[in-house]
Amino acid sequence: MNVYIRAVAERLASQGVEVDLFTRCRGHGSPDVQEIVPGARLITVRAGPYAPVPKADLPRYVPEFLGGVLRRAELEGRGYDVVHTHYWLSGWVGRSAKEIWRVPLVASFHTLGKVKNYALARGERPESHARMAGEARVIADADRILAPTPAEAAQLVGLYRADPEAIRIVPPGVDHTIFVPQPKEQARARLHLDTDMCLALYVGRLQPHKGPDVAVRTLAEAVALDPGRCLVLAIVGGPSGSSHGEEVARLLDLASALDVGDRVMLFPPQPQRRLADFYAAADAVLVPSRSESFGLVALESQACGTPVIAAAVGGLRFVVQDGRTGFLVEGHDPGDHAEKLLAVLRDRELARRMGEEGARQALRFTWDATASELLSVYRELLDGPASTAKLGA
């Protein structure tokens, strides 16, 4: 979501739209207002402590955050033409701002609580009733609701009774100046990785819903099926929420119990250019999410020319072309994922074709196109020249 918001803000600003991004201040010393690019600003608002807050505790600080947003706008004498929110909590703020400022509200969610709850991992805590109710209120009050794929548009209608006439499908993009095919050997050399091994890659938050445990189990199954292959799994990402390092410990314990502990490498979250090296260095990328609104990891991987082995859920069905840019696997049986992983590793020609087709398909998704489609949505609501608009997000 952070990648999406920043990329879109920069490109909207380049098209003449003034954009202010409001976020909660998490620490002392950060500036209240920071220019991202000319025309786009990041504004931090005090709401709660100057520290990270567990997700479950965030709702209590939403009224304070709304007050900070309103005070900042009043202090600067700055009016907005559109409010665009990107989560159910910010949607609550947006609903109030819409009424106070008398401007239209555009809502994006990036994940939907009801969809997540239908696909929980064993032992995973469901999303709260407060979130379900909050999402429903935002969806009811928004003038436009953005979905990244037709599948999510259908979920908004079927699960939340959203007005189909208010929904617009706007897929995310990828930065093709960063995520491009490049020689595998060079990428591995930059990462100080062995050039002779087979490398599977997982990128994402280390939480059960994203399926890093399935990735580890897939590795173990693949090793059991092909013990002579020097197969290693690189995991790039960090824990989120209140679990802190618990998920990391669970993954390491799982790898040890499956006797593949020496084949798992953990890396912290990476900057975009470094992440592109990981994609290029990999022989295949595993995306075993239990639900996925879109699947930006899969798209970035394909843009780098690397095949994807993904769970056939949500937006991944939209991003990954089964048998052409990778494989879609029904369910989360690690044996099924391992079978498809080995199919790619064993057939260099298949991997090459999938990589080339993936890179071609990824060119359909750009942040410039995403920003232009957003601008069209804003124009619908403003019924005037959007180049003069001011956007609060």
Task: Walk me through what this model shows.
The protein is α/β, with parallel strands linked by helices. It folds into two domains: 2-173 and 366-392, Rossmann fold (3-Layer(aba) Sandwich); 184-362, 3-Layer(aba) Sandwich (Rossmann fold), CATH 3.40.50. The protein is built from 15 helices and 14 strands. It has helices at 2-14, 62-76, 88-101, 113-117, 129-141, 150-160, 184-191, 212-225, 246-257, 272-281, 296-303, 316-319, 334-346, 348-362, 367-382; strands at residues 18-24, 33-37, 40-45, 82-85, 105-107, 144-147, 167-169, 198-203, 231-236, 264-267, 284-287, 308-311, 326-329, 390-392. The strands form two sheets. Strands 2-3-1-14-4-5-6-7 form an eight-stranded mixed sheet, with helices on both faces. It has a six-stranded parallel sheet with strand order 10-9-8-11-12-13, sandwiched between helices. Strand 11 (284-287), helix 11 and strand 12 form a beta-alpha-beta unit. Helix 11 (296-303) packs across helix 14 (348-362). The longest helix has 16 residues, at 367-382. The chain is globular, with a radius of gyration of 21 Å. The model has no long low-confidence stretch (mean pLDDT 93).
Helicity range of the residues? 40-55%
* CATH class bucket of the largest domain: Alpha Beta
Low-confidence stretches: none
Number of domains: 2
Radius of gyration: 21 Å
- Strand fraction band? 15-25%
Give the name of the CATH architecture of the largest domain: 3-Layer(aba) Sandwich
Shape: globular
The ordered H/E elements are: HEEEHEHEHHEHEHEHEHEHEHEHEHHHE
How are the strands ordered across the major sheet?
2-3-1-14-4-5-6-7
The span between the termini is 12 Å
CATH topology of the largest domain: Rossmann fold
Enumerate how many helices there are, as a single number: 15
